[in-house]
Amino acid sequence: xxxxGHRNTxxxxxxxxxxxxxxxxxxxxxxxxxxxxxxxxxSLTFGYQPSTHQIAYLTAKDQGWWNESLSPLGVQRINxxxxxxxxxxxxxxxxxxxxxxxVGAAPVVAAVANGLDAxxxxxxxxxxxxxxxxxxxxxxxxxxxxxLRIATFPPGTIQDTLLREWLAANGINPERDVTILPxxxxxxxxxxxxxxxxAVFLPHPSPTEIEVQGIxxxxxxxxxxxxxxxxxVVLVSGRLIREHxxxxxxxxxxxxxxxxxxxxxxxxxxxxFAADQDMDVAVVEKSLQDxxxxxxxxxxxxxxxxxxxxxxxxxxxxxxxxxTQDDLFDLSFYEALDQ
Length: 339
What we know:
339 residues; alpha/beta; 5-stranded mixed beta sheet; 16 helices; 12 strands; 52% helix; 17% strand; NrtA/CpmA_ABC-bd_dom; Sulfonate ABC transporter substrate-binding protein; membrane
């Protein structure tokens, strides 16, 4: 009897310890989660690049629309970070340093294949990049690029993926018949000017900047390489989608508002971009006249070409898993808008 009572006392004491510990742990967890959500709601960080493809982000910022739409939901501060290309931008998102990215669809494919928890919720634009050849070099067709040194964005980006696929489709082996050098836009323009490369494949406004400086000329627009191809998108972290869908809904609505505004106020959009990048507004306006890009927000338009990027990257060995539409897109926020 003494031994049984001792065991009962011990069991009761153990139960109390477990319950108390569970309460304490639960309390700490709830408090931490609450603090984390409050932090997430109080600020958001956007990533973007120095390209006219992503002017909608700058327009909404310049007009005060991000604060107008998100502050009622608790987001009191909008931060942003500028990236030269999509590859470092996706590295930052993988590290949890940005919540929303204006970025190319191809870097999204590479990042999601490597574990990024995020979904495309809207399109930013389609097409809009050019192959620019150094002045003095002839060009009548893709064969004239054989043997040349071409600078473009790093592997896994829209430009690198498109260029390699287009060269191969025209009988030019991108590994043996040309030299493709990964560079950001500034370094690529400098390399072309210095004669270190023969051509570049870059998004606007860089092709127009090069032509205005008298360094080279556009010979192929990306819409000729793949008509209506996906380019930049609005990418939102999975955690934001799950924990704050109301915030994501406002992000999509604000992006659509800015996209529609830019299409009706192109000169104003050019001025917004020029001010952000400290550029000559006349060059930006010329770029927007020269390019073959279109600002759109509907993500349905780019599903097929984005899945094609995923297949091309898989075939090229850039990624080691095949991705589906569900892996890359969340259409629910765009479809919930009152269009």
